[in-house]
Design goal:
By secondary structure, the chain is α/β, with parallel strands linked by helices. It starts with 9 loop residues before the first strand and ends with a strand. The strands form three sheets. The chain has a seven-stranded mixed β-sheet with strand order 3-2-1-4-5-6-7, sandwiched between helices. A three-stranded antiparallel β-sheet has the order 9-8-10. A two-stranded antiparallel ribbon has the order 11-12. The chain has three domains: 194 residues, Rossmann fold; 250 residues, Orthogonal Bundle (N-(1-d-carboxylethyl)-l-norvaline Dehydrogenase, domain 2), CATH 1.10.1040.10; 41 residues, Single alpha-helices involved in coiled-coils or other helix-helix interfaces (Up-down Bundle). The protein contains 19 helices and twelve strands. α11 packs across α12 and α12 packs antiparallel against α18. α4 links the parallel β4 and β5.
Length: 509
């Protein structure tokens, strides 16, 4: 039975943290929403929030108790947004909607952190039953409420119906400055500005781009944490002092959401002990899988993303807390003396430049991975547009992303961000401090896996002749894997009969 006399614009399934905030964002922008969740307490919380925010005005959010009532309360063809955990719950919702009477021209939008291959599989599985569309959402609960970064992909027709909704609720950027237009109060609407929502491409591409976004996020966070550890363990700085450094950095080229919140975390006091809260937090990092998926995809595609991978490994080694405590008592570190206080400012400047250069490399790896996947999947991804929709709303939002967008505007076919003249000049300018920071951290025994892997990536990428020639010789020696010659046309394979006198060379077909 219809819940309201007037049909709603959007059906919404899932009123958890992300779902509730997306719903409230939609109603702020004038859309009528009918919501359903298996957990009635979540629907009660949703209605209570709507009542508190609207005051005496008419309800903006309606709720129902079944999938059948949800469909009956919507205009046809139905548009339904799903915000449930990735994996089996998405398919469960889809099957229940089909049983409730979903039609072939109805649209179901998956906004969870689904694995991109699951999205591709679902599109084929549900073809003819309804139109599956996906939209990856970044920005956490605050972004969902006041303006996320949205990465939609799938059926182009479905995008024409969803576009007005997503552009309305997305984060906005000032087109002249490239800076986010802040919206922090319920009921506020930002009508002007460039929306951080753009059609990515065919099924799966949006979730792939979001996956890489999260991989870059892993790297960005780990790089910041390594800079923090050097200041804490090598320079003996307090959390409050490090927070002040991060706030200073946030006023320049490292300006970003992650630097901003890192300063706030470090400056927060524990209400129970009065000590810095971060010192009370156990050093075991969790992960939900998207960083791992990114690292696995880079391996599967043969596209190097070592800084992203090291960030995943850093979280893994952090979970070995008990072993690390034992190792700290048993395993010796270097005898190198820690720096004097007089050297502090110079070392902080080195760390700043190291973080900046490594950040460039992490993003270069992420965009190269998207480019490689696009070629493999025959997607036409607009990398300049992707950089633009990450300038606000998402977790890795930063002023830095405007420079990436500019690089792809200069050359849409850019092979790697490091080959852009601006970024090449930036690393050339700051790499000396980057090298000093990594070398010093090693001498002091402070682990900087992400900072150093980014430097190794940069040095490998700029090296015309790598030692892979010896590696190919080794492979041919023990496994007859063949090799190409530098003095012969590419594609021709050769093998050496290593065990025979004179080691004759054989040309392979």
């Amino acid at each position: 039975m219809p819940v309201t006399d007037q049909p709603c614009d959007i059906g919404f399934i899932g009123a958890g943290v992300m779902g509730k905030n997306l719903i409230m964002n939609l109603v702020d922008n004038g859309f009528r929403v009918i919501a359903f969740d298996l957990d009635q307490t979540k629907l009660e919380a949703l209605r209570a929030q709507d009542e508190a925010e609207r005051g005496d005005a008419s309800p903006r959010v309606f709720t129902c108790n079944s999938y059948t009532d949800l469909l009956a309360s919507l205009s046809a063809p139905h548009l339904i947004v799903v915000s449930v955990p990735a994996g089996d719950p998405v398919d469960d919702v889809c099957h229940k909607l089909i049983d409730a009477g979903l039609q072939a021209d109805d649209i179901v939008v998956d906004t969870g952190n689904s694995l991109w291959t699951d999205t591709q599989r679902r599109e084929k599985e549900y073809e003819g039953k309804f139109i599956l569309f996906s939209t990856a959402v970044s920005g956490g609960e605050v972004g969902a409420r006041f303006g996320p970064s949205l990465m939609p992909s799938g059926d182009p027709y479905a995008w024409t119906r969803i576009k007005p909704l997503w552009e309305a609720i997305a984060a906005k950027v000032d087109p002249e400055t490239g800076k986010p237009i802040e919206r922090k109060a319920p009921g506020e609407v930002v009508a002007k500005g460039e929306p951080c929502a753009a059609y990515i491409g065919p099924s799966g591409s949006g979730h792939y781009v979001k996956m890489v976004h999260n991989g870059i996020e892993y790297a960005d966070m780990q790089l910041i944490c390594e800079a923090y550890q050097v200041m804490r363990d090598a320079l003996g700085m307090t959390d409050t002092e490090v927070a002040a450094v991060f706030r200073r950095w946030n006023e320049g080229r490292l300006n970003s959401y992650l630097i901003e919140i890192s300063a706030e975390v470090l400056d927060t006091r524990d209400s129970e002990t009065g000590e810095p809260l971060v010192s009370m937090i156990l050093d075991k990092a969790g992960q939900k899988g998207t960083g791992l998926w990114t690292a696995v995809s880079s391996l599967q595609l043969g596209c190097p993303a070592p800084t992203i991978s090291e960030a995943v490994f850093a979280r893994s080694i952090s979970t070995l807390k008990d072993q690390r405590v034992k190792a700290a008592r048993l395993l010796a570190g270097p005898d190198q003396a820690l720096p004097d206080v007089a050297e502090r400012e110079a070392i902080i400047e080195q760390l700043h430049d190291a973080l900046y250069c490594a950040k460039i490399c992490a993003y270069a790896q992420g965009f190269d991975l998207m480019k490689t996947a696009a070629s493999e999947q025959e997607w036409s991804l607009n990398f300049g547009e992707i950089a633009k929709i990450w300038r606000a709303g998402c977790i890795i939002r930063a002023v830095f992303l405007q420079s990436i967008a500019d690089a792809y505007e200069r050359d849409e076919e850019l092979d790697n961000l490091l080959l852009d003249a601006y970024f090449a000049e930036q690393i050339s300018t700051y790499q000396a401090n980057w090298r000093k920071a990594v070398a010093n951290a090693s001498l002091w025994g402070v682990p900087v896996a992400a900072l150093s892997s980014a430097l190794s990536y940069y040095d490998a990428y700029r090296t015309a002749v790598l030692p892979a020639n010896l590696l190919q010789g080794q492979r041919d020696y023990f496994g007859a894997h063949t090799f190409e010659r530098t003095d012969k046309p590419r594609g021709k394979k050769y093998h050496v009969e290593w065990g025979q006198a004179g080691r004759p060379m054989v040309k392979m077909k």
